[in-house]
Amino acid sequence: MRSALGALLFISASAIAAPAPIRFAITDSWAMPMAQIERGRPIQGILYDVMLSLATQVGVPAEFKVLARARVHSSMEHGEIDVRCYAAQAWLPNQSGNYIWSVPLWLQRDLLIARPGTPAPVVPARLTAQPIGTVLGYYYPTLQPLFDSGQLQRDDARNQDQVLHKLQAGRYQYAVSNQWTLDWFNQRLMPDQQLHAVTVLQELNVGCYVRNDPKVPVQRILGTLLKMKMSGEIDDIIQLYTGTREPLPGTPAP
């Protein structure tokens, strides 16, 4: 009886002592180098590596929840997620709830891209009526008036990698890509086969936001993210996957 009671007390004490994990949101439309998702779990990528390092440095386990993009915000609202990374306040103008944002950690650079030999630069408003490769559920403010007017039409794919493969196959003449995914995709191609940017559509600083809850180590998370950025660790992770350092705002696209 004593041994059984002792075992029960040991298990209870262990459960109490075990730190709660940080629950991170992973968007299922992310592709490499942001994150590679297999069997419903992320296994590598820039954002995965940053989140895993963050949790390790904070001293708690990391738990990853793969969600459809449309479900991420509601999951944060309902307390099912603690941290969402690669987000911008401009994307969440009506954000409710109590959240605290990190310092800017990355530069989201959206590019209009094309196959080799396509002249640059391109002014989107001067394009003739045609489809543009886009990611389902993503909002492109620069192009939205042209989509609304019918001058350009969205051709949605499930993730960014599929968009680039369709462009490479000639399904459309132009597509939208972020800089990271373009750099990652081009690493597998010979120089004369690489896709290239024909104009920069938008540049936006993005970071992480944390649910402000006493159960979440908010200040440790934010302080660790700041340290990771200032030390160069985050930029080193970007370079590991893309071969380039994070571009500065206003720098011409390669």
Number of strands: 11
Beta-strand share of residues? 25-35%
- Described by the principal axes of the CA atoms, the overall outline is globular
Classified in CATH, the superfamily of the largest domain is: Periplasmic binding protein-like II
CATH architecture of the largest domain: 3-Layer(aba) Sandwich
Can you write the helix and strand succession as a string? HEEEHEHEEEEHEHEHEHH
Derived structural class: alpha/beta
Give start-end ranges of low-pLDDT stretches: 5-15, 248-254
Given the structure, what is the number of helices?
Answer: 8
How widely separated are the two ends? 72 Å
Task: Say what the CATH topology of the largest domain is.
Answer: D-Maltodextrin-Binding Protein, domain 2
Kindly provide the radius of gyration, computed on alpha-carbon positions and rounded to a whole number of angstroms: 21 Å
Supply the number of structural domains. Answer: 2
CATH level-1 class of the largest domain: Alpha Beta
Helix content: 25-40%
* Sheet of most strands: 7 strands, mixed
- The mean pLDDT is 88
